[in-house]
Amino acid sequence: MEIEARLEDVRQRIASVAEKAGREENSVSLVAVSKTFDAATIQPVIDCGQRVFGENRVQEAQGKWPALKERNQGIELHLIGPLQSNKAAEAVALFDVVQSVDREKIAKVLADECRKQGRTLRFYVQVNTGLEPQKAGLDPRETVAFVAMCRNELELDVEGLMCIPPADEYPGPHFALLAKLAKECDVQKLSMGMSGDFETAIEFGATSVRVGSAIFGTR
Question: Is the dihedral of CA 10, 15, 18, 24 positive or negative?
Protein backbone atom coordinates (compact mmCIF):
# COMPACT_ATOMS: atom_id res chain seq x y z
CA MET A 1 0.00 0.00 0.00
CA GLU A 2 1.34 3.45 -0.92
CA ILE A 3 1.92 6.01 1.80
CA GLU A 4 -0.97 8.18 0.57
CA ALA A 5 -3.35 5.21 0.81
CA ARG A 6 -2.15 4.35 4.31
CA LEU A 7 -2.73 7.95 5.41
CA GLU A 8 -6.25 7.89 4.00
CA ASP A 9 -6.94 4.55 5.73
CA VAL A 10 -5.87 5.99 9.09
CA ARG A 11 -8.03 9.07 8.53
CA GLN A 12 -11.06 6.92 7.73
CA ARG A 13 -10.50 4.75 10.79
CA ILE A 14 -10.31 7.85 13.00
CA ALA A 15 -13.53 9.20 11.49
CA SER A 16 -15.31 5.85 11.91
CA VAL A 17 -14.38 5.40 15.57
CA ALA A 18 -15.17 9.03 16.37
CA GLU A 19 -18.62 8.66 14.81
CA LYS A 20 -19.32 5.47 16.77
CA ALA A 21 -18.26 7.25 19.95
CA GLY A 22 -20.68 10.08 19.18
CA ARG A 23 -17.89 12.56 18.54
CA GLU A 24 -17.16 14.95 15.71
CA GLU A 25 -14.43 13.75 13.34
CA ASN A 26 -12.54 17.02 13.78
CA SER A 27 -12.44 16.51 17.56
CA VAL A 28 -9.48 14.15 17.01
CA SER A 29 -6.21 15.51 15.61
CA LEU A 30 -3.87 13.16 13.77
CA VAL A 31 -0.20 13.64 14.68
CA ALA A 32 1.79 11.87 11.95
CA VAL A 33 4.92 10.55 13.64
CA SER A 34 7.72 11.07 11.14
CA LYS A 35 10.71 10.11 13.30
CA THR A 36 13.48 8.28 11.37
CA PHE A 37 11.90 9.20 8.00
CA ASP A 38 13.57 11.71 5.68
CA ALA A 39 12.09 14.79 4.06
CA ALA A 40 11.48 13.01 0.75
CA THR A 41 9.29 10.45 2.52
CA ILE A 42 7.44 13.09 4.55
CA GLN A 43 6.64 15.42 1.64
CA PRO A 44 3.96 13.18 0.03
CA VAL A 45 2.12 13.09 3.37
CA ILE A 46 2.20 16.90 3.50
CA ASP A 47 0.96 16.96 -0.10
CA CYS A 48 -2.10 14.98 1.04
CA GLY A 49 -2.99 17.82 3.42
CA GLN A 50 -1.43 16.53 6.64
CA ARG A 51 -0.04 19.42 8.65
CA VAL A 52 0.59 18.08 12.17
CA PHE A 53 3.72 15.97 12.70
CA GLY A 54 5.55 14.46 15.65
CA GLU A 55 9.26 13.89 16.16
CA ASN A 56 11.13 12.16 18.98
CA ARG A 57 14.52 13.85 18.83
CA VAL A 58 15.43 17.51 18.53
CA GLN A 59 18.63 16.90 16.56
CA GLU A 60 16.95 14.68 13.97
CA ALA A 61 14.10 17.16 13.53
CA GLN A 62 16.57 20.01 13.01
CA GLY A 63 18.00 18.14 10.04
CA LYS A 64 14.78 18.10 8.02
CA TRP A 65 12.01 20.32 9.37
CA PRO A 66 13.36 23.87 8.88
CA ALA A 67 13.44 23.29 5.10
CA LEU A 68 10.10 21.45 5.10
CA LYS A 69 8.49 24.27 7.07
CA GLU A 70 9.89 26.82 4.66
CA ARG A 71 8.42 24.99 1.65
CA ASN A 72 5.05 24.14 3.21
CA GLN A 73 2.69 26.52 4.97
CA GLY A 74 0.87 25.72 8.19
CA ILE A 75 3.05 22.95 9.60
CA GLU A 76 2.60 22.26 13.32
CA LEU A 77 5.49 20.31 14.82
CA HIS A 78 5.18 18.35 18.07
CA LEU A 79 8.06 17.04 20.17
CA ILE A 80 6.81 13.71 21.52
CA GLY A 81 10.09 12.24 22.84
CA PRO A 82 12.06 12.96 26.01
CA LEU A 83 13.77 16.34 26.12
CA GLN A 84 17.14 17.01 27.72
CA SER A 85 17.67 20.47 29.17
CA ASN A 86 20.69 21.13 26.93
CA LYS A 87 18.38 20.81 23.89
CA ALA A 88 15.65 23.10 25.23
CA ALA A 89 16.74 26.20 23.30
CA GLU A 90 16.71 24.32 20.00
CA ALA A 91 13.37 22.70 20.86
CA VAL A 92 11.70 26.03 21.62
CA ALA A 93 13.03 27.50 18.38
CA LEU A 94 11.77 24.64 16.18
CA PHE A 95 8.70 23.04 17.76
CA ASP A 96 5.21 24.42 18.28
CA VAL A 97 4.11 21.90 20.92
CA VAL A 98 6.13 19.91 23.48
CA GLN A 99 4.22 16.83 24.65
CA SER A 100 6.85 15.40 26.98
CA VAL A 101 7.13 17.76 29.97
CA ASP A 102 7.63 15.48 32.96
CA ARG A 103 9.85 17.15 35.57
CA GLU A 104 10.31 20.52 37.20
CA LYS A 105 13.81 21.11 35.82
CA ILE A 106 12.76 20.80 32.18
CA ALA A 107 9.60 22.85 32.77
CA LYS A 108 11.67 25.72 34.19
CA VAL A 109 14.20 25.60 31.35
CA LEU A 110 11.39 25.63 28.78
CA ALA A 111 9.72 28.59 30.49
CA ASP A 112 13.03 30.50 30.47
CA GLU A 113 13.66 29.73 26.81
CA CYS A 114 10.16 30.79 25.77
CA ARG A 115 10.74 34.16 27.46
CA LYS A 116 14.20 34.57 25.93
CA GLN A 117 13.03 33.74 22.42
CA GLY A 118 9.66 35.48 22.63
CA ARG A 119 7.98 32.22 21.63
CA THR A 120 4.63 30.92 22.86
CA LEU A 121 4.52 27.14 22.77
CA ARG A 122 1.81 24.77 23.95
CA PHE A 123 2.68 21.98 26.37
CA TYR A 124 1.48 18.57 27.48
CA VAL A 125 2.53 16.88 30.70
CA GLN A 126 3.61 13.27 30.13
CA VAL A 127 2.20 10.83 32.69
CA ASN A 128 3.74 7.41 33.36
CA THR A 129 0.40 5.67 33.87
CA GLY A 130 2.02 2.25 34.27
CA LEU A 131 4.72 3.49 36.69
CA GLU A 132 7.32 1.84 34.46
CA PRO A 133 10.84 2.61 35.76
CA GLN A 134 12.38 2.62 32.26
CA LYS A 135 9.84 5.06 30.86
CA ALA A 136 9.65 8.84 31.05
CA GLY A 137 6.64 10.51 32.59
CA LEU A 138 5.26 11.78 35.86
CA ASP A 139 3.79 9.65 38.63
CA PRO A 140 0.00 9.96 38.22
CA ARG A 141 -0.30 10.93 41.89
CA GLU A 142 1.91 13.99 41.29
CA THR A 143 0.23 15.16 38.10
CA VAL A 144 -2.37 17.61 39.43
CA ALA A 145 0.15 19.50 41.57
CA PHE A 146 2.74 19.52 38.78
CA VAL A 147 0.31 20.96 36.21
CA ALA A 148 -0.71 23.66 38.68
CA MET A 149 2.96 24.55 39.27
CA CYS A 150 3.66 24.74 35.53
CA ARG A 151 0.69 27.01 34.96
CA ASN A 152 0.77 29.23 38.04
CA GLU A 153 4.48 29.58 38.77
CA LEU A 154 6.05 29.14 35.33
CA GLU A 155 3.13 30.47 33.25
CA LEU A 156 3.39 27.60 30.77
CA ASP A 157 0.41 27.01 28.51
CA VAL A 158 -0.32 23.43 29.58
CA GLU A 159 -3.20 22.35 27.38
CA GLY A 160 -3.18 18.60 27.92
CA LEU A 161 -1.76 15.33 29.17
CA MET A 162 0.07 12.58 27.27
CA CYS A 163 0.75 8.92 28.03
CA ILE A 164 2.30 5.78 26.53
CA PRO A 165 0.70 2.72 28.19
CA PRO A 166 2.75 -0.42 28.90
CA ALA A 167 3.19 -2.40 25.69
CA ASP A 168 2.06 -5.68 27.25
CA GLU A 169 -1.18 -4.44 28.82
CA TYR A 170 -4.63 -3.56 27.48
CA PRO A 171 -4.42 0.24 27.19
CA GLY A 172 -8.00 1.06 28.17
CA PRO A 173 -7.43 1.52 31.92
CA HIS A 174 -4.41 3.73 31.22
CA PHE A 175 -6.41 5.91 28.83
CA ALA A 176 -9.22 6.10 31.39
CA LEU A 177 -6.76 7.17 34.10
CA LEU A 178 -5.34 9.91 31.87
CA ALA A 179 -8.85 11.20 31.09
CA LYS A 180 -9.66 11.28 34.81
CA LEU A 181 -6.45 13.18 35.59
CA ALA A 182 -7.17 15.67 32.80
CA LYS A 183 -10.49 16.56 34.42
CA GLU A 184 -8.80 16.98 37.80
CA CYS A 185 -6.14 19.21 36.20
CA ASP A 186 -8.75 21.15 34.20
CA VAL A 187 -6.97 20.52 30.90
CA GLN A 188 -8.88 19.87 27.68
CA LYS A 189 -6.50 17.81 25.54
CA LEU A 190 -5.53 14.14 25.71
CA SER A 191 -2.66 12.86 23.56
CA MET A 192 -2.94 9.10 23.67
CA GLY A 193 -2.98 6.21 21.24
CA MET A 194 -0.47 5.09 18.63
CA SER A 195 -0.62 2.89 15.53
CA GLY A 196 -1.67 -0.22 17.44
CA ASP A 197 -4.24 1.28 19.78
CA PHE A 198 -5.42 4.68 18.51
CA GLU A 199 -8.97 3.48 17.95
CA THR A 200 -9.23 2.41 21.61
CA ALA A 201 -7.76 5.77 22.63
CA ILE A 202 -10.44 7.65 20.71
CA GLU A 203 -13.12 5.64 22.49
CA PHE A 204 -11.63 6.85 25.78
CA GLY A 205 -11.57 10.50 24.71
CA ALA A 206 -8.26 11.10 22.93
CA THR A 207 -8.12 14.52 21.26
CA SER A 208 -4.92 13.64 19.40
CA VAL A 209 -3.42 10.32 18.34
CA ARG A 210 0.25 9.80 17.47
CA VAL A 211 0.42 7.50 14.45
CA GLY A 212 3.68 6.58 12.72
CA SER A 213 4.09 3.08 11.27
CA ALA A 214 0.46 2.82 10.11
CA ILE A 215 1.18 5.80 7.83
CA PHE A 216 4.88 5.62 7.01
CA GLY A 217 5.38 1.86 7.24
CA THR A 218 7.83 -0.04 9.41
CA ARG A 219 11.06 1.66 10.37
Answer: positive
